[in-house]
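Closing statement on the 6-O-phosphoryl inosine monophosphate sub-project.
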Amino acid sequence: MPTVCVVGAQWGDEGKAGIVDALGAAADWVVRFQGGPNAGHTVVVGEDTFKLHLLPSGLVRERPRCLVAQGVVVDPEVFFRELDELERRGVDTKGRIFVADRAHLILPYHRLLDGLTETRASVPIGTTRKGIGPCYADKVSYRGIRIADLMDREWFETRLEGEVAARNELLRKVYGAEPLDPAEVRDVLLAYRERFAPLVVDGAEVLAEALDRGEEVLFEGAQGFLLDVDAGTYPFVTGSNASVLGLCAGAGIPPRRVDRVVGVAKAYCTRVGGGPFPTEDPGPDGEHLRSFGKEYGTTTGRPRRCGWFDAVALRYAASVSGFDELVITKLDILSGLPVIRVATAYEHRGRRITRFPAAVRVLSEAVPVYREFPGFEGDLGGVRSFEDLPPRAREYLAALEDLVEVPIRTVGVGPERDQLVRKE
Ligand code: GDP
Ligand code: IMO
Ligand code: MG
């Protein structure tokens, strides 16, 4: 497996980090290629739980070197806080973490503006308020500041001065907010500059060389397909191409170097933040999923909205992403439900829809057409072979495979490292 890309197939929090952790044991590199500290990636190692927001989950393993690639938006404060925390907890990160010089920086005004626009918006998105949208907006409107710019002190100071002045005007005149102190912003960033210096690389070059040497590279997606800025439920999305569509630009690799795409989906569905969610179940079954599945945001602590597996959305994600394989996580959480539902189509104003629609209104009004499956009982946490899963759980997985038309090779039955069942 020279290159494998692990991406979310729903609205994020599918359990991507656990899969990256499992595959990462043998990888030479683990690479984050999009998103920023909006991500919350959980790796459970025995008694220890690591929650990573910006750094690749591969750091928790000993072997891989890790790259924060050019498509990631980097908040220096989060970057070093997370690195220090890992070191404090005994993870040796020295010589194993690199950051691409072309990655854009999340600056204090990005965080402020994210919060202010959310608070004032007539239709809030429910962002994580980490400055993601404003930072990506600056990147595509040529106002961003990259790590490479920070490394060139004179150029950096000129650029920053202009940007802070422009944002202060916006903060004051439009939002009536306190302006930032330009000298303070500059000094804080210049202090990070020293720490970044030994970690900065030309990310695309590093990856090209690694791939030429035949090293195994694992790409760790953040967020999920339905949050992708182009493919997702716009405007209720994130600022990046949070699907495999973002891989080439975000990592700086050509398409022919992507060998395998692994889509990760929960056995049910969750969404945190606003936006349409056709299979959301606000009733007791949704509450079962939230409480047993511990469905509370890793980054913001918000309760996640819960509902049923949506095969319409998954088929769309699979066809656009070309999943070679689907991982189904959290199968154990369905245990105890009398009936399990899967949306196979939607009804909208008397019309049957089988292709995931773009229009927010259609998605919001769509009524799922459910296929019902009898539930299963018992604790699946100790199951390690596919044959030992309850027959009804296997039937459920077989139906998902048929509906999405992608093979399911791995199933999650608990949060621990070894709680994965492989279907050979
Ligand atoms: P990510 O953002 O896709 O990496 O996922 P998160 O870390 O935000 O959320 C997934 C949560 O589910 C984490 O707390 C994981 O430890 C947990 N988890 C992952 N796979 C399983 C599983 O198969 N069963 C159970 N019960 N928990 C899981
Ligand atoms: P991981 O990698 C779930 C959601 C936010 C909001 C929208 C835009 O852990 O799966 P943003 O702050 O990105 O501008 O918010 O995207 N969102 C996520 N939801 N998992 C994530 O990451 C998310 N990252 C962002 O809740 O709806
Ligand atoms: Mg998460």
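Residues 8, 11-13, 38-41, 125-128, 130, 132-133, 222-224, 227, 238-239, 272-273, 298 surround 6-O-phosphoryl inosine monophosphate (ligand 2) (CB under 6 Å). With this model delivered, the sub-project is considered complete and its resources will be redirected to Aim 3.
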